[in-house]
Every structure is written in structure tokens, then in C-alpha cells.
Amino acid sequence: MIEVSFDQLHAWLSAFLWPFIRITGLMLSAPLWGHSSVPTQAKIGLAAAITVVIAPTLPPLPNIPVASWAGLGLVVEQLVIGTAIGLTIRVMLSVVMATGDFIGLQMGLAFATFFDPSSGANMVVISRFLYMITLLMFLAVNGHLVVLEVLISSFDTLPIGIQRFNPEAFILLARYGGTIFATGLLLALPLVASLLIINLSLGILNRAAPQLTVFNIGFPTSLTVGLALLMVLMTDLGRFLERHFYHGLEFLKHLVETLAPLAG
């Protein structure tokens, strides 16, 4: 008869629980795995499967009881690491949503919104369209596999029980949030600049010929030119996103390294 002691059960539970919480933090905060359309059972099952695979390869775990204040500290520590990785991916993929907002505002489609269950807010149609393309591109370049690779390698850079973080990493993550505006505006700049020139021209035309109302000429012109320019933008969108993903994933690796506390 096989007998299992309490110490063995506790060791097995610790080997599974700590990495499982870090992976779960990623699943909850990342936009791809944390999407509302993905069932909760599937998220938990995927996190558990990854944990079972990587658990034997992890560095030695701290001998801390699960049901203790120190164990609660480890839970918070793993959630912080997983959530930081997930938030970085969310910021990286949210760039195109800002791009869609800028383009939709200039095209006159800011009112064409619908409720997005994944974000819990109204989203411009163009933003949703570009966001879905970005998610598919992210899967096509195996970005999700790179994220999982960074997550698994973080157990070596940030072993379980590290007890403290480098505060500079959180400042770095907050500053990276500016990428949403800067890169999003950079992608939308050709359309925004062109439509702005058209709107200025229509404004001058309206002053010169008041009988030509803006609503009769301006909106169809902005919409038609905007759709044409959007078609031109799509021809270079893949190259832009590929370069954006590269810089975003490089930042993710740098963030994980920065989270490690300074020596001494």
C-alpha cells in the first residue's frame, strides 16, 4: 500500500500552486487569453496544463507553508509578476484601438460605436476592426508563444520567493503606457493629416459658397476619402504591426529583467 505523508502533499501542492498563480495572473490580464469569450474553465485548464508541464523544470521552491501569511505574500508576488506581463501585452495590442479612435473621429464615424463585451465599454467600429486584425497578426507571428516563453523564463529571472521588486520596473511600465497614444497617433497620422486638410478645404469652401453646406458635401467626402486611405493603410499595416510587436516583446523581456531586485 502506498502511503503519502503530509510533507509530500504539501510539497506537491507548493510545486503546483505558486507557478499556477503566476500563470493565472497572465491569463486574467492579457487580452488574448483573458478575453471574455474564452470560458473560465478553459483559462483555468490551460493554466493548470502549463503548470504541470513546467513544474519539474523550476528552480527550488521556498519551504513556506501555503496556509500562512508568508504564503499569502507569495500569492501576491506571483500575481504582480503575471499581471505586469499581461498588462504589457494589453498596452501593446491597445495601440490600434487608439488608432481607430483617431481615424473614426476624423472620418465622422465617432458615433458609429457598439458595446464591446471584452472591455465593457463602447468602441468605435474601426477600432474593433483594427483590433481583430492585430490579434490575428499577433497569432500569425507566434507572439503568443513568445509571451509564454518569456513567462516561463521569468521563473529563472524572478524565482518564486524573491520577496521584493525593483521599483523602477513599475515606473517603466507606467511610461510604456504612453505607447498607446504615441504609436497609435503615428499609425493614424497619414489619414488624420489628409482628412484634416480636406476638412480645412471644405471649411474654406463653405465660407466662400454658403449654399454648399458641410453636411451635404463634407461628410460624404470625408467618409469616401477616409475609406480609400484606409485601404491604402492596410497595405502597410502588416509591416508596421510586425515591427511594433518586435519592440513590444523586447520591452517585455526588459521589464522582466528590471523587476529583479538590485544586488545588495
- Rounded to the nearest angstrom, the radius of gyration is 24 Å
Low-confidence stretches: none
Mean pLDDT: 82
Structural class: mainly alpha
**How many strands in all?**
2
Domains, number: 1
User: Which bin fits the share of residues in helices?
Assistant: over 70%
Shape: elongated
List keywords for this structure.
single chain, about 260 residues, mainly alpha, two-stranded antiparallel sheet
Task: Describe the protein.
The chain is mainly alpha-helical. The chain is built from nine helices and two strands. It has a two-stranded antiparallel ribbon with strand order 1-2. Strand 1 (113-116) and strand 2 (121-124) form a beta hairpin. Helix 1 (6-29) packs across helix 2, helix 6 (143-157) runs parallel beside helix 9 (214-259) and helix 8 (179-208) runs antiparallel to helix 9. The longest helix has 46 residues, at 214-259.
Give a topology summary.
Layout: H1 6-29, H2 40-54, H3 69-93, H4 95-107, E1 113-116, E2 121-124, H5 125-140, H6 143-157, H7 167-176, H8 179-208, H9 214-259
Antiparallel strand pairs: 1-2
Helix pairs in contact: 1-2, 1-3, 3-9, 4-5, 4-8, 6-9, 7-9, 8-9
Short note summarizing the structure:
This protein is about 75% helix and about 5% strand. The protein is mainly alpha-helical.
